[in-house]
Amino acid sequence: MTSAPYASRERSTKERILGAAEALFATHGFAGASLRQVTAAAKVNLAAVNYHFGSKDKLIEEVFRRRLDELNSRRLAALGKISNQNETQLEDVLDAYIRPALDLSRTDGGGAAFVRVLARAYAEHNDTLRRFLSDNYGHVLRQFATEFGRLLPTLAKEEIYWRLDIVTGALTYAMADFGIIQRKSDVAERDHREAAAEHLIRFAAAGLRNPSVSPSPSPATR
């Protein structure tokens, strides 16, 4: 049986590696940050990385798993609560999808660097990583899409996914807090996030409720 102090040291080493990797991936990207840089920042040797993760690709996956497991557990728990209500509103489902993600991005929870890592994942078109995210977290998106479909029965399934994809893009932008509306020095971060959540929920609800309209053909195809 593993002793408690040894298990604690193992967790500490693994967490140091994950924290260092997250910060370096956020700054330099997945290709730009080397394992040598990760080991130096975490103050461990390469053998420790190989022992805990096996490869750089697996380390990248664990950086995402560390944050996304908790995020999506909170999303599904919130969705489960409102799904049992008699009159679930569209805003309730959006709240369950949006608010846990904005909470993840708070600086006091260490999620600010991960938001930049998430942006890297969108920008770098890493097929291995995309497949990992789809295989492990695609079911969460499908559950929300199903709930949106129930509340918006006139929208085709493909149209719901288009709109949910756009909502997710706006959410990622809000998580990065890189927009025109910056938090004022006299406004608490929690209050700023709350305002962002309320604005995004109202905006997303209006977009989702908009009647389905076939996209106009581009000039090249007319």
Outline the structure in words.
This protein starts with a helix and ends in a 13-residue tail after the last helix. The longest helix is centred in the first third of the chain and has 29 residues, at 4-32. 25% of the residues are buried. The chain is mainly α. 75% of the residues lie in helices and 0% in strands. It is globular, with a radius of gyration of 20 Å. It contains nine helices and no strands.
A few lines on this structure:
By secondary structure, the protein is mainly α. Helix content is 75%, strand content 0%.
Using the alpha-carbon principal axes, give the shape.
Answer: globular
Q: Sheet with the most strands? A: none
The number of helices is: 9
Mean pLDDT: 86
What share of the residues does DSSP label as strand, in percent? under 5%
Q: Sketch the topology as an H/E string, one letter per element.
A: HHHHHHHHH
**Can you count the beta strands?**
0
Spatial extent as radius of gyration: 20 Å
Protein structure class: mainly alpha
Give the uncertain stretches in residue-range form: none
Helix proportion of residues, in percent? over 70%
What is the terminal separation in angstroms?
Answer: 70 Å
